[in-house]
Amino acid sequence: MAVLVGQEAPKFTASAVINGEEIVDNFSLDQYKGKKYVVLFFYPKDFTFVCPTELHAFQAKLAEFESRDTAVVAVSTDTEQSHWGWLQVPKDKGGIEGITYPLVADTNKTISTNYDVLAGEWDYNEDGEMIAHGEMIAYRGLFLIDKEGVVRHQVVNDLPLGRNVEEALRMVDSLQYFEEKGEVCPANWKKGEDGLNASHEGIADYLATH
Fold first, then answer.
1. Within this chain, do residues 127 and 113 fall inside the same structural domain, yes or no?
2. What is the pLDDT of residue 24?
3. If you average pLDDT over residues 149-162, what whole number do you get?
4. Model confidence pLDDT, tens digit, residues 39-55
5. Which domain holds residue 174?
6. Average pLDDT, stretch 162-176?
7. Residue 3, in any domain of the structure
8. One of 51, 72, 142, 175 is an active-site residue; which one?
9. What is the pTM of this model?
10. What letter does residue 197 receive in the DSSP assignment?
11. I need a surface site. Which of 14, 77, 176, 193 has the fewest CB within 10 A?
C-alpha cells in the first residue's frame, strides 16, 4: 500500500454526478487547488449496505466540512449512470437520495489504482490471458488534501469496516490548527483544546497535566 502523505495528490479527470443530479464529464480536483481543502474518500460499490451509511454520514456533516473550507468528494469504480440511479432511490429504501457532494465514476479504475486503494490485481495465466485476483473495486480509502494539493492524511479500511466521519472532521481541524497556530496536535486532540509546543519543555508540560 503506497503512502501518499507528503506527496502531491494524484490528478484525475473523470465523469461525476454533482449536486445530486447533474452528470459532468470533466470533474477534477484542480478546481479546489488554492481555494479549499479536500476530503477525498473511496467506497466499494453502489447499491450495497455499508456504503450508504457512510455516504449519508458525510452528507450529515457536510455543512461542518464546508464551514472549514473543505470539499467532500466520493469515488467508486461504478459508472456515473449507476451513481445517478442510486441517487434516485430514497434513503429509507437503501438509496442515497439527498447526497449533494460529487460522486466520481472511476470506471476504468485508474483513480483507485493511482491512490493505491484498488482491492484486486491484474495478472496473466499460463495461456497469456489476463485474469483478476479479487474484486476490482476500491477499499475504503480516505485522503485529506490541503489547499496546495498535497496529501496530509490517509487511512484505508477493508471492505466490511465503515469509517468514522467525526475522525475525518477532526483531522481537518488538526491540520488547520497546526497551520494557524504552528503547534502540533497530541493524541485525541479536539477542536477547542490547546495544542502542543513541539519542544522538550512543551511535551513535559503537556504530559504533566494530562
1. yes
2. 98
3. 97
4. 999 999 999 999 999 99
5. 164-210
6. 97
7. no
8. 51
9. 0.92
10. -
11. 193
The answer to whether 170 touches 27, Cβ cutoff 8 Å, is no
Give the pLDDT confidence of 66-86 residue by residue, as tens digits. 999 999 999 999 999 999 999
And the C-alpha cell for 21? Answer: 443530479
Share of the chain above pLDDT 90, in %: 82
The size of the chain, in residues, is 210
Q: What does the alpha-carbon distance between residue 35 and residue 69 come to, in Å, rounded to a whole number?
A: 8
Measured distance CA(55)–CA(112) in Å, rounded: 18
Dump the DSSP string for 146-170.
-TTSBEEEEEEE-TT----HHHHHH
CATH number for position 143: 3.40.30.10
Q: Say how many domains are in the chain.
A: 2
Is 185 a known active-site residue?
no
Please spell the DSSP secondary structure of 44-96, one letter per residue: S-SS-SHHHHHHHHHHHTHHHHHTTTEEEEEEESS-HHHHHHHHTS-GGGT--
